[in-house]
# Entry
Amino acid sequence: MKSFVTPLVAVVMMAGAALAQDTPAPEGAAVYFVNLEDGATVSSPVTIIFGLEGMGVAPAGTEKENTGHHHLLLNRPPLGEGEEGELEYGLPADDNHIHFGGGQTQVTLDLPAGQHTMQLVMGDLNHVPHIDPVTSEVITITVE
# Structure
C-alpha cells in the first residue's frame, strides 16, 4: 500500500502546482526594493527590505485572494529568462532563488565582494508567479 500512497501524493502535488498558474495578480500591484537602488555600493552583510503595493503578503500555502509571498532572484537572469517552467510550475529553491514563504518582508545576506543582481518576484501559495507576474526591476549592487 505504501508504494501507492507516494505516487498519489506526487500526483496531487503536481495537480495543485499546475492549477496554481492561474492565480491572478491584483491590478496595479507592484513589488520593489525599499532601501537599495540600482548601482548602489554597500558592505556585507546586506539588509534588503521588500516593498509591496496593491496586494498583501501571506505565507506560502495560504489561499487568500490578492496575496502572495516574496522571492529574491539573486545573480541570475530576470524572471522568464531563467529556469524552464518557473512561470508555470513554480520557482526553484536554491542559492539563486531565495524563498520567503513565511511571509518575511526583509532579509540580511552575507554577500561576497563584487557585483550582484537582484530581482523581487511575488509568488502565489505554491511559489508560482501570478498571471501578469508582479516583479521588481532588476538592480545591480556592488559589495565592497
Notes: The mean pLDDT is 87.
